[in-house]
Design a protein that fits this description.
The protein is an alpha/beta fold. It is built from eleven helices and nine strands.
Length: about 270
C-alpha cells in the first residue's frame, strides 16, 4: 500500500510532462526553444542532477581544461539539451511533411541512394547522441523502407508519446513502412530480418547495453561499458554501416551521411545463440 501514492505521483508527473511536450510541439520553434532555454538556465542555476552529471562527465573527459572552460561547456551542453527538447516535441507531434521542411541541407545523400538501389545487403545507419537524431527517422522513412531501434524511457507516459511519434515517422510513404524494434536481445531476429531484406535499420550506438550484451572499451582514458550489437548485426548480415548526424544551422538543420569504418569482427555470444 505504501507504493501507491508514489506510483500515483509518478503518473501525475508523467501526464504533466507529456502535456507540456505536446504544447511545445504546437508552438513556433523559436518560442518553444526560448521556453526550454529558460528551463535549461534554471537547471544550471539550481545545480540540478543534469548539471552535476554533465560536470562529472566533462571532468573525466577533459581534465586538461580549466574549471572556467568546463563551466562554459556545461552551460552550452544543458542549453543544447533544452533546444533538443523543443525540437523533439515538434517532431513527435507535427505532420512529417512539416518536419521535413526543417531540414535545410542534406550532405552525402547519394551514398544512401546508391546503397538502396545497387546493394543486396542491408544498411545500418548509426547516429550518436549528437545534434538532433530524431530528424533522421522521418527523412529516411520518407525515401526508403527504414526501421529504428527504440529504448523505452523511464516515464511510461512519455514512452507512449515517443512511440507514436517515431511510428508516424517510420511509416514513411503510404505504400511502404518500417517498424519500431525494441533495443533488446529478444528482438535481435527482427533486426536481422530487416537487414537481410536489404532495408535500413537506424540505431544509436552510444547507449549503455543490457548486462551481458556489451564489453568494456576505452573512452577518453576510462573503461566504458559499450554495446556489441552493432558489430554483431554487421557480422551476421554483411550490412554496410553509415554514420548520420543532424546538426543545427542558421538556415535549419543539416543532415549528413558519411561512410564509417568499424571492425565487425568482435565476437558476441548474444548472436551465437540466435
Amino acid at each position: 500500500m505504501a507504493n501507491k501514492p508514489s506510483s500515483r505521483s509518478s503518473q501525475v508527473k508523467g501526464t504533466i510532462i507529456v502535456s507540456f511536450i505536446k504544447a511545445l510541439g504546437f508552438l513556433p520553434l523559436p518560442i518553444s526553444q526560448s521556453i526550454t532555454g529558460f528551463i535549461a538556465w534554471l537547471s544550471y542555476q539550481t545545480n540540478s542532477t543534469s548539471r552535476k552529471v554533465t560536470e562529472v562527465n566533462l571532468q573525466l573527459c577533459y581534465p586538461e581544461l580549466s574549471a572556467k572552460e568546463r563551466a562554459c561547456l556545461t552551460r552550452k551542453s544543458i542549453k543544447a539539451s533544452g533546444m533538443l527538447m523543443a525540437e523533439a516535441a515538434k517532431i513527435w507531434t507535427q505532420p512529417i511533411e512539416k518536419i521535413l521542411t526543417m531540414i535545410s541541407h542534406v550532405e552525402g545523400e547519394e551514398l544512401i541512394n546508391n546503397l538502396n538501389k545497387n546493394s543486396t545487403k542491408g544498411t545500418l545507419v548509426i547516429s550518436p547522441h549528437l545534434g538532433n537524431w530524431e530528424f533522421i527517422y522521418p527523412y529516411l522513412a520518407h525515401h526508403f523502407i527504414a526501421s529504428g531501434l527504440y529504448r523505452p524511457p523511464k516515464i511510461a507516459e512519455l514512452a507512449t508519446l515517443i512511440l507514436a511519434g517515431r511510428a508516424k515517422a517510420l511509416a514513411g510513404r503510404t505504400d511502404t513502412g518500417g517498424q519500431i524494434i525494441k533495443a533488446s536481445y529478444m528482438e535481435v531476429r527482427k533486426m536481422l530480418r530487416v537487414l537481410k531484406n536489404a532495408e535500413i535499420l537506424v540505431m544509436l550506438p552510444d547507449q549503455q547495453p543490457q548486462q551481458g550484451s556489451g564489453v568494456f572499451a576505452d573512452f577518453y582514458g576510462h573503461q566504458a561499458y559499450t554495446m556489441t550489437l552493432l558489430q554483431g548485426l554487421a557480422q551476421r548480415t554483411g550490412a554496410t554501416i553509415i554514420m548520420a548526424t543532424c546538426l543545427r544551422s542558421n538556415a535549419g538543420f543539416k543532415l549528413t551521411f558519411s561512410p564509417v569504418d568499424i571492425d565487425p569482427s568482435l565476437s558476441n555470444q548474444l548472436f551465437a545463440e540466435q
